[in-house]
Amino acid sequence: MSESMALRGLYAVTPDETDDERLVALAAQVLAGRPALLQYRNKLAAAAQRRTQAAALRELCRAAGVPLIINDDLALALEVGADGVHLGRDDGDPAAARRALGSGCILGVTCYADLSRARAGAAAGVDYVAFGAMFPSSTKPSAPPAPFSLLGQAKAELGLPVAAIGGITLGNAAAVVAAGADLIAVIGDVFAAPDPAARAAAYRALFVSP
Ligand SMILES: Cc1ncc(COP(=O)(O)OP(=O)(O)O)c(N)n1
Ligand SMILES: Cc1ncsc1CCOP(=O)(O)O
Fold first, then answer.
1. Ligand 1: which of 68, 72, 74, 110 to mutate, judged by most atoms within 8 Å of the beta carbon?
2. Residue 164 Cα to ligand 1 middle (Å)
3. Ligand nearest the Cα atom of residue 133
4. How far apart, in whole angstroms, are the C-alpha atoms of residue 170 and residue 207?
5. 4, 31, 141, 160: which has the highest count of C-beta atoms within 10 A?
6. 167-170 contact pairs (CB < 8 A, 24+)
7. What is the mean pLDDT of the chain?
8. Is the CB of 132 under 6 A from ligand 1?
9. 3-class DSSP state for residue 116?
10. CA 93 from chain center: how many Å?
11. Which residues neighbour 195 within 8 Å (Cβ) at sequence distance 6 or greater?
12. pLDDT of 112 above 80
């Protein structure tokens, strides 16, 4: 991972949007609020559309100076020249992803509520570990809960940035940051906000020291 990529702040994760223009317009608004990272995640689009959308986000993120992370799909990340990839338990071996990406790209893994996955991720060379769901998520209702205590535990033991995801809103995010989250990963509360740029900027403010 390059020195200039700070893994602290809002981690904006895109919604399942199949209207390409709408996705790009929404992402442009969110990027105006300066998240630390943008993740492309779309469970509804087919492969060809995922390529189109990822390539469009690649250009937007480059212009905004915000790293683009691709969810689930190492091959797509490599194809569009993304800045990194995020892998869950069914998305391939993190050590193999690290070898394919090289050291200059960001690699993150979902650890759910399982510290042993975070330890394995650290051994595989990941840049951050993600836990969740911190709260019930209407975007992914099937996501099982993860306790806040894991955030501080993982940080203390592994010395890696920790991401938290699931049901996070501006109203509860400060508590998640206080529990140790370096990255606050959010879909609905940012992308469905009346003003996504202002909402993203409000998350950013949570990380600015007084
Ligand atoms: C930052 C971050 N954390 C967790 C997830 C969830 O990943 P995964 O478990 O692979 O589930 P899906 O996103 O594929 O539904 C994430 N995407 N980003
Ligand atoms: C992908 C994912 N993994 C656990 S919860 C979740 C969805 C997060 O979306 P939201 O921020 O809208 O709750």
1. 110
2. 10
3. 2
4. 12
5. 31
6. 167/133, 167/134, 167/135, 167/136, 167/137, 167/138, 168/134, 168/135, 169/135, 170/199, 170/202, 170/203
7. 97
8. yes
9. helix
10. 18
11. 29
12. yes
Taking phi over 0 as left and psi of -120 to 50 as alpha, with beta for the rest, 111 belongs to alpha
Centre of ligand 2 from the C-alpha of residue 39, in Å: 12
- How far apart, in whole angstroms, are the C-alpha atoms of residue 131 and residue 112? 5
Token readout for 116 is 């042993």
> What's the complex ipTM?
0.99
Cβ proximity of 107 and 87 under 8 Å? yes
Q: Is 130 in the pocket of ligand 1 (CB under 6 A)?
A: yes
Integer Cα distance of 157 and 150 in angstroms: 10
**Among the listed residues 206, 110, 125, the one whose alpha carbon sits nearest the alpha carbon of residue 164:** 110
Q: Quick one: tokens of 134?
A: 């911190």
Q: Would you state the pLDDT for residue 86? A: 98
pLDDT over 70 percentage in the chain: 98
Q: Answer whether 33's CB lies under 8 Å from 193's CB.
A: no
- Ligand that comes closest to the CA of residue 86: 1
* Residue 81 CA to ligand 1 centre (angstroms): 20
Query: What is the C-alpha separation between 108 and 118, in angstroms, rounded?
Result: 10
Contact predicate 182/17, CB 8 Å: no
User: Of the bound ligands, which one is closest to the alpha carbon of residue 203?
Assistant: 2
